[in-house]
Amino acid sequence: MKNLKSGMIVKHNNQLGKLARGAENKLYFVPAKYYVQSWEDLEVATEENTQDTTHDEKVEFLKKDFTWGEVVKTYTIGEYVIFEYINGYDLEHEKVKNIRFHALINYQTVSISYHSLDSCLVGTIAYKFDGANSQAAGYFEKMIGMKGVK
């Protein structure tokens, strides 16, 4: 595997994880939901000890690493991956249960969640072409009369 970069999802010793730049500008292998307290606890990633991952493996890792809620469904459309997830204070007892949609473009989060799949698709396309502060999605939704737009 060549051209290792921070943020890449890779396999290391048959475990999925992400590469992160750390001490002495080295790349380290970071498993899902691992909070880096010390770079010394992690292994240095090299071209020899990392393998590339398939689309399904990347999505599997991202689902494990997802902290916004419990992923219940995944949609893939070209370079877009959308997680349908349950967001709530007490998922086990279902006291608060909200379905949300969260998108990634080329496996990178857009850091925004939406109330519907339609809004997520529109918002993610606007994000890709117009940036994080785009208002295009909101205007488009109003123009075509999408319900529930705030």
Count the E strands: 7
Q: What characterizes the major β-sheet?
A: 4 strands, antiparallel
Class by alpha and beta content = alpha+beta
On the 0 to 100 scale, the average pLDDT is 88
State the end-to-end distance: 46 Å
Q: How many domain units? A: 2
Helix content: 10-25%
Strand content: 25-35%
The low-confidence parts are: none
How would you write the strand order of the largest sheet? 4-5-6-7
Choose one word for the global shape: elongated
Radius of gyration: 18 Å
| Number of helical segments with 4 or more residues | 3
**Secondary-structure element string:** EEEHEEEEHH
Descriptive notes:
- The structure is a single chain.
- With 150 residues, this protein is an alpha+beta fold.
- It is built from three helices and seven strands.
- The protein has a four-stranded antiparallel beta sheet with strand order 4-5-6-7, with helices on one face. Strands 1-2-3 form a three-stranded antiparallel beta sheet, covered by helices on one side.
- α2 packs across α3.
- The protein is elongated, with a radius of gyration of 18 Å.
- The model has no long low-confidence stretch (mean pLDDT 88).
Essential attributes:
2 domains; three-stranded antiparallel beta sheet; 7 strands; elongated
